[in-house]
């Protein structure tokens, strides 16, 4: 199991040009746990993840990894501890699956050092874990959206960081592969103690797989805590503008959100 790293956000403000996306945000990511960030479109979820990996400089405040501002940590040093799978990444033209996944080992390479057996093992394990080993010699350009997403996840796994941030890791995946990927991340957390932070649109998947939920609304923290504390009818209404009913998932004992359309709100029982 890896040692837990602390990841905190203090009075963080982020934006693009004249638009503020995140304002005065404070939050703590529980070390060694799985955290899911949820919220409506354009509420700042992806922007927050980009700032956590120093891809976006804050207008104010700090992102702190083990008490040190991430924007002051050298990029390669940071990448040995904290990895990011961004939304809709772009692969170099013509690159093979094996070569792309191998790039996850770059933070561990030293000047003039040769590729090692440890690197081989890490890449092979990542390909096996994501069921992409049979695609190793194929060009990434030839793959379906779901296959490509699993290859990108394999690259993130090959990086073998203690903290892993994923922006919509189930994008383009059918339901069975969504479950496979989330099960894989759960296994990674359980066996290595990897701290995982992921943005998910599916509230029920987030509640089922996460130990900790963070709900953002218009760039501010609306609620944070265990799924049963955060996924409530009031939170769903406040964050998504949606009426719902929350029941207990019979397979996981986690909260399960049932959305109510306008034809289902206060509708009398039909005969």
UniProtKB/TrEMBL annotation:
<keyword id="KW-0472">Membrane</keyword>
<keyword id="KW-0547">Nucleotide-binding</keyword>
<protein>
    <submittedName>
        <fullName>ABC transporter ATP-binding protein</fullName>
    </submittedName>
</protein>
<keyword id="KW-0408">Iron</keyword>
<feature type="domain" description="ABC transporter">
    <location>
        <begin position="7"/>
        <end position="243"/>
    </location>
</feature>
<keyword id="KW-0067">ATP-binding</keyword>
<dbReference type="InterPro" id="IPR051535">
    <property type="entry name" value="Siderophore_ABC-ATPase"/>
</dbReference>
<dbReference type="InterPro" id="IPR027417">
    <property type="entry name" value="P-loop_NTPase"/>
</dbReference>
<dbReference type="Pfam" id="PF00005">
    <property type="entry name" value="ABC_tran"/>
</dbReference>
<dbReference type="GO" id="GO:0005524">
    <property type="term" value="F:ATP binding"/>
</dbReference>
<dbReference type="InterPro" id="IPR003593">
    <property type="entry name" value="AAA+_ATPase"/>
</dbReference>
<dbReference type="InterPro" id="IPR017871">
    <property type="entry name" value="ABC_transporter-like_CS"/>
</dbReference>
<keyword id="KW-0406">Ion transport</keyword>
<keyword id="KW-0813">Transport</keyword>
<keyword id="KW-1003">Cell membrane</keyword>
<dbReference type="InterPro" id="IPR003439">
    <property type="entry name" value="ABC_transporter-like_ATP-bd"/>
</dbReference>
<keyword id="KW-0410">Iron transport</keyword>
């Amino acid at each position: 199991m890896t040692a837990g790293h602390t990841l905190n956000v203090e009075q963080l403000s982020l934006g693009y040009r004249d638009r503020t996306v995140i304002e005065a945000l404070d939050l703590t990511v529980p070390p060694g746990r799985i955290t899911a960030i949820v919220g409506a479109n354009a509420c700042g979820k992806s922007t927050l993840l980009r700032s956590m990996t120093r891809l976006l400089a804050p207008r104010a405040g700090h992102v702190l990894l083990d008490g040190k501002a991430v924007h002051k940590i050298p990029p390669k040093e940071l990448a040995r501890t904290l990895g990011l799978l961004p939304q809709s990444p772009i692969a170099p033209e013509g690159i093979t699956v094996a070569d792309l996944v191998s790039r996850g080992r770059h933070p561990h390479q030293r000047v003039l050092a040769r590729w090692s057996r440890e690197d081989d093992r890490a890449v092979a394990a990542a390909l096996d874990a994501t069921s992409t080993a049979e695609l190793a010699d194929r060009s990434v350009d030839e793959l379906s959206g779901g296959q490509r997403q699993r290859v990108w996840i394999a690259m993130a796994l090959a990086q073998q960081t203690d903290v892993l941030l994923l922006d919509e890791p189930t994008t383009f995946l059918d339901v069975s592969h969504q479950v496979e990927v989330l099960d894989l991340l759960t296994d990674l957390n359980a066996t290595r103690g990897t701290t995982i932070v992921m943005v998910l649109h599916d509230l029920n998947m987030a509640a089922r797989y996460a130990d900790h939920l963070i709900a953002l609304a218009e760039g501010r923290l609306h609620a944070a805590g265990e799924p049963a504390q955060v996924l409530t009818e009031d939170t769903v209404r406040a964050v998504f503008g949606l009426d719902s009913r929350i029941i207990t998932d019979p397979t996981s004992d986690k909260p399960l959100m049932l959305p109510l359309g306008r034809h289902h709100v206060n509708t009398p029982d039909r005969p």
